[in-house]
Amino acid sequence: MEMQSYYKSTFKSGKSLAGPTLLDAVSKAVATNEVNAAMGKICATPTAGSAGVVPGVLFGLKPRLEPSRKDMLNFLLTSGAFGFVVANNASISGAAGGCQAEVGSAAAMAAGATVELAGGTPQQSAEAFAICLKNMLGLVCDPVAGLVEVPCVKRNAAGASNAIVSADMALAGVTSRIPTDEVIEAMYKIGQTMPSALRETGRGGLAGTPTGQRLKQEIFGD
């Protein structure tokens, strides 16, 4: 378990460049998605492939912010509300919109909820959501061998990091010049123009590399 080893050797030794809160969120995001990859029971937030981001951020922030159970439920409610808006106005499916629609949406959901958990305003939550989603526009869905492992697991780590950084920016007063609704619309349009090879078919991107094809052959014998 690479992340577990890194967590023990780096985080607990105090050598992390990212700091304890961020690395804790990343390790929990990766752990959750590894459970998904191993066919374990997870909650799709908003999808199975991006399921590590929201809980990873929540439990990574828990030691720092010390939220009550009600606060944690509000975090999940807020993230779900943002996800509901995306699902109804764009897509949360990698097959329809690429990884921007999965990990991108999950990260933005977590960013908005993080601001709420930290005591920010609803407007700041929306700004964090927009900033975060903008950072992941165009991200393709290219699972090696069609499995939700490579590069999906590590993208959950990137999503968790993006969420916390975006929340920090919004809490500091940084705003998105493009309104939240328009960012969501842009993501939808990008997904519509994305080639099918880059939308969960396992044919393009990293899945189409020589190593990606070799791994597919080793797994399935094709």
From TrEMBL:
Alphabetical keyword list: 4Fe-4S, Gluconeogenesis, Iron, Iron-sulfur, Lyase, Metal-binding
InterPro entries: Fe-S_L-Ser (IPR051318), Ser_deHydtase-like_asu (IPR005130), Ser_deHydtase_asu (IPR004642)
Catalytic reaction annotation: L-serine = pyruvate + NH4(+)
EC number: 4.3.1.17
Cofactor list: [4Fe-4S] cluster
Protein family membership: Belongs to the iron-sulfur dependent L-serine dehydratase family.
Protein name: L-serine dehydratase
Organism: Staphylococcus gallinarum
